[in-house]
Write a structure and sequence with these properties.
The structure holds two protein chains of two kinds. By secondary structure, chain A is α/β, with parallel strands linked by helices. Chain A is built from four helices and 13 strands. In chain A, helix 2 packs across helix 3. Classes of the chains: A alpha/beta, B alpha/beta.
């Protein structure tokens, strides 16, 4: 079969997400793929990054030898503070989320339903040690919750689904999904297409996802 | 009034078996390791521990768990790359876990400190964590078109928090993101014990910058700053307070 398209690499995907983050936005980037977005914010775009453990104005990884383990991110990796940054305690940090003060939260996901239900904290595997962290708070708190993920599992199944089979993190909370094949909006009426990679037709995308996608 | 204890043992005296102990920290930042070591030596058993994580490596909270002192843990993120002590106890059914979304954990502690009877939050609605341990659903209510779950406060008998500097009235300041759960846990326990690296005279902490006012603190004890992950890098921290 002739491949008429090429998937977005993780950095291309991060650049695609970054393009939609406006100057002046307060943003939380989730663990994993979303952390890459920070490397692709446009020049002249000033974005304030929030970290759940009480940081606004989080900066990049420090140079080797300059790590300070009192200053870490949600993944417990050392980070830095931008001039103008601030520290605050956990109840304030999550009030910032829950209170709708963050503009955008970008999360990874195991599954997202067409109407925006999110599953990203547990695969429900028996015997697994459960852990949720701030996932459920982030999912429902920000003005907009975006998901950034590869569209297909390693087995080729779509992670965009009619109904999530994994345990839910939040209901109807995802507004937009950025994938290596396409960008889509989740609406109460189902998926709508925002863009695709070059050479991928609407019908081909619907074939991959297995759901109808509105224009 | 002098809340300064001369030793960790003195600061932790009287913690009974079966106590609920709030332990500050996120990952290794802000974990009051010296107080946890002191609690192991103090010997209280059958504890309920409330903390964001369930211990890293073999020290601190992990050592307390390994010593078999904890019956139940309330936390948001027990599973980590180095949470082998908890993982083993949990798999063998030797510890009870209440998993709480991190923001609900913080707000339930805040509610305890603020005298709130319970609160409705959208976090967790429609998920497995909107159920009690016995599987029955928590109360829910639709408020202004949005569904919320009723959550209750978490009161501590004791809070163990790690701060940077304190005075004899118990006023505290913290260091960077090691602040995390410290200030909110300090309000939520009947007795809050703070370890500090630096004891200063009354009036030396800028009143505009005090994070935990002394009313929330019962005992303050000075501990050495270790060049461990939990203590922050010695050099950076020492430069700041030199």
């Amino acid at each position: 079969m002739k491949l008429g398209h090429r998937r977005r690499t993780p950095d291309e995907l991060a650049r695609r997400v970054a393009r939609d983050i406006p100057d002046g936005a307060y943003v939380n980037l989730g663990i994993g793929l979303p952390t890459r977005v920070a490397n692709h914010l446009g020049a002249g775009v000033e974005v304030v990054l929030h970290s759940e453990n009480g940081i606004l104005g989080m900066g990049p990884t420090p140079a080797p030898g300059d790590e300070d383990f009192d200053l870490i991110n949600a993944s417990k990796q050392p980070v830095t503070l931008q001039p103008g940054g601030a520290y605050f305690h956990h109840a304030d940090s999550f009030a910032m989320m829950r209170g709708g003060h963050l503009d955008i939260c970008v999360l990874g996901a195991f599954q997202v339903s067409a109407s925006g239900d999110l599953a990203n904290w547990s695969t429900g595997e028996p015997g697994a040690i459960p852990a949720v962290g701030g996932a459920m708070d982030l999912a429902v708190g920000a003005k907009q919750t975006w998901v950034m993920m590869e569209l297909l599992t390693r087995q080729g199944a779509s992670k965009l689904v009619e109904r999530c089979s994994y345990p839910l993190t939040g209901i109807g909370c995802v507004k937009r999904v950025y994938t290596d094949y396409a960008t889509l909006a989740c609406t109460p009426e189902g998926l709508r297409l925002i863009d695709t990679v070059e050479g991928l037709s609407h019908a081909e995308l619907e074939g991959l996802v297995g759901l109808r996608i509105g224009p | 009034m002098n809340k300064i204890a001369s030793t960790v043992a003195e600061a932790l005296a009287g913690i009974p078996d079966g106590a609920t102990v709030l332990v500050g920290g996120f990952g290794t930042a802000g974990v009051p390791e010296a107080l946890i070591d002191g609690l192991i030596a103090q010997g209280a058993r059958e504890l309920t521990v409330v903390s964001n994580n369930a211990g890293n490596g073999e020290t601190g909270l992990a050592a307390l768990l390994k010593a078999g002192r904890v019956r139940r843990i309330v936390c948001s993120y027990p599973r980590q790359a180095d949470s082998q002590v908890f993982d083993d106890l949990y798999r063998r059914g030797r510890i009870e876990l209440e998993l709480v979304p991190q923001g609900n954990l913080a707000e339930r502690l805040r509610a305890a400190g603020a005298g709130i009877g319970a609160f409705y939050t959208p976090t967790g609605y429609g998920t497995d964590l909107a159920r009690h341990a016995d599987g029955t659903p928590k109360e829910t209510r639709c408020i202004a078109g949005r569904w919320h779950v009723l959550e209750y406060p978490i009161h501590g008998d004791v809070a163990l928090v790690k701060a940077e500097a304190g005075d004899r009235w118990g006023n505290l300041v913290y260091r960077k993101a090691a602040r995390n759960f410290g200030p909110v846990m300090a309000t939520a326990a009947r007795c809050t014990v703070a370890s500090v690296h630096c004891i200063v005279g009354l009036g030396e902490l800028d009143p505009e910058a005090i994070v935990t006012p002394g009313i929330h603190v019962s005992r303050v004890v000075q501990v050495q700053r270790l060049a461990t992950r939990a203590g922050g890098l010695g050099s950076a921290a020492v430069r700041q307070w030199a």
